[in-house]
């Protein structure tokens, strides 16, 4: 994928067609069905999650509900995918890690705001919208914090809006992976029933399909280099 991204769109489309010849017809069909339901209108941000099985379960939910991008902020805790929980979902997602600074939250959230996202903090402690009522007319970056302490004060201060799951029991909050799954199911279902332009562009679909095809074959960069060199 790193090599493919250096080529023009028309060349990337030819690269994709060639890579797909290494993959079964059934898998190709699955790819095309899945990419048509992928979205970047909603994205996920995980801030300093220290329990890898919970974060990996969020990745699994993102894949299940068609969320393509996941932004992982690593301030004190480094994130490692738990393969037993993620069940291979990470290779179908676009993961972006933020770990260059001591506090990576501002850089991540500023980048997303510059891309047109509203930052929406998931928290049960503030007056906030529910997944059923939250407006989806703008792009949404859903921000989830650590299991014990929740989101950092910096993240909460930078949030544009808040979202919560209404509960009627004695327990104040749900596990992060459960919360993310409930919110994502509701928002993506509403999004697909709406008239909002939530789908990927043709160029985005091409690049994601190249990434998926590359995940299925050995030495994809070498194959791409040889293919383009022989043209």
Give a brief rundown of this model:
The protein has 231 residues and is an alpha/beta fold. The chain is 42% helix and 13% strand.
Helical content (DSSP H or I, runs of 4+): 40-55%
Q: Termini separation (Å)?
A: 19 Å
Q: Give the strand order of the largest sheet, numbering strands 1, 2, ... along the chain.
A: 3-2-1-5-4-6
**Rg to the nearest angstrom?**
19 Å
- Major beta sheet, specifics? 6 strands, parallel
CATH superfamily heading of the largest domain: SPOUT methyltransferase, trefoil knot domain
Q: What characteristic shape results from the CA principal axes?
A: globular
For the record, the count of structural domains works out to 2
Strand content: 5-15%
Give the name of the CATH architecture of the largest domain.
3-Layer(aba) Sandwich
Mean pLDDT: 90
CATH domain topology of the largest domain: Alpha/beta knot
Order of helices and strands: HHEHEHEHEEHEHHH
How many helices? The count is: 9
What structural class do helix, strand and pairing data support?
alpha/beta
């Amino acid at each position: 994928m790193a090599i493919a991204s250096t080529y023009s769109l028309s060349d990337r489309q030819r690269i994709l067609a060639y890579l797909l010849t290494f993959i079964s017809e059934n898998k190709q069909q699955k790819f095309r069905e899945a990419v048509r339901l992928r979205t970047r209108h909603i994205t996920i941000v995980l801030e300093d999650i220290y329990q890898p099985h919970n974060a990996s379960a969020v990745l699994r939910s993102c894949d299940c509900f068609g969320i393509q991008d996941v932004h992982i902020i690593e301030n004190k805790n480094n994130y490692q995918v738990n393969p037993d929980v993620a069940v291979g979902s990470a290779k179908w997602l676009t993961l972006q890690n933020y770990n260059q600074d001591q506090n990576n939250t501002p850089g991540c959230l500023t980048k997303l705001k510059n891309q047109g996202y509203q930052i929406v903090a998931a928290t049960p402690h503030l007056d906030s919208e529910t997944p059923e009522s939250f407006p989806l007319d703008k792009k949404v970056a859903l921000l989830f914090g650590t299991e014990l302490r929740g989101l950092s004060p910096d993240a909460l201060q930078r949030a544009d809006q808040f979202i919560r799951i209404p509960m009627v029991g004695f327990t104040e909050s749900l596990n992060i992976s459960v919360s993310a799954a409930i919110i994502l199911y509701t928002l993506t279902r509403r999004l697909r029933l709406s008239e909002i332009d939530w789908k990927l562009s043709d160029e985005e679909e091409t690049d994601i399909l190249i990434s998926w095809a590359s995940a299925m074959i050995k030495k994809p960069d070498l194959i791409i280099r040889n293919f383009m060199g022989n043209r």
